[in-house]
Predict the 3D structure of the following.
Amino acid sequence: MNFITLLLNIFDPLKIVRNYILKPAITIIVAMLESYRNKTRQSVQTTKNAMLRVTLFTFLIFILIWASIFMYAYFYYSYMPAVSHVKDVHMNYRRCEYHNCEIYPEAEVILTKNQQLLMVGQPYKVYLHIDMPESPKNHDLGMFTVCARMTDQSNKHGIDSCRLAMLHYKSPLLKQITTWMLSPLFVFGYREEIQHISVELFTNFEDDQNYPITKVKVQIKSKDVQFYSVRLQIAAHFTGLRYFMFNWPVLSAVVGISTNLFFILIICMLSWYHWDDNEWLDEVRERYKRITQRSEELLATAVAPVVGNLVKSDLNAISPLLDENSQTSESVTKEKDIESITDDDNISIIEELGSTKSDDDDYFLDDHGGKITTN
């Protein structure tokens, strides 16, 4: 540092270069660096603020989207009923209670114990699926009747239905061709000579909220019918919005979530606008003050007559007592006055007696009535 100062003194003894060249240049460079540093700080702070705003905005949008999804899912599971209920039916021949009675295979299916299984207001279709072999006996049987009765827990309220059914007809030639073509599958057990018969017992059944259906009694009115298994199916028949939501679930989900998000954004924007503008808060405060003042005035005007009446009634009730107290106080004061008067008289008499006694102590009378002092 001393060497540099020495060189400057040698080459610039009058300080012209230092005062007019170096100092202005250094000042300009320092100012430029300071402005650049300030701009850098401002840009960094602006970038931080922008990143913070973007993060908050992204988080808010994420919450709103998930809220919309949750609202749609809640609406879907509360509005859409179960599509189908399938129960196995274990058929059996009941005992004959009297002579020459008809014995048919029947069964009672318990849908639920106490709670309501079906949605109120939703139409349902009730099917009975019967797996029947293509046996000669079933072909010779022809038409047969299938009946069902749906009742509540108490068996007092219910609905009945009966439908006809039969095997699908096949000509002998078609049977032979089908048997020859599918014989390998029949041999190895991959196929069976069986037909699936579906009988629609109820078309548009709607459950009653007061008397919900809890069990179904099924009966096939044929003694010679042959079957492998029987199943009861209760399928919901969708119409309107439920039909759209069931058949196009993705499209309905997109529309529902977008609608929820749109309304949530509108509510958030209106809330932000109201909270950002504080004038409405001042108006609310003024209205609250006016309401409280008005209520106090009304309360005062309403309470004043009641208080006056109460005070009057209390005074009327207390006045006899006050009169008695005043009379007793007057009598007491009179007695006190009398006592004070008697006390004063006694005091005067005592004083007189004392004075006479003092005089007697100072002199006595002689035989002629003259006073003779003792001292």
Summary: Residues 279-362 form the longest helix (84 residues).
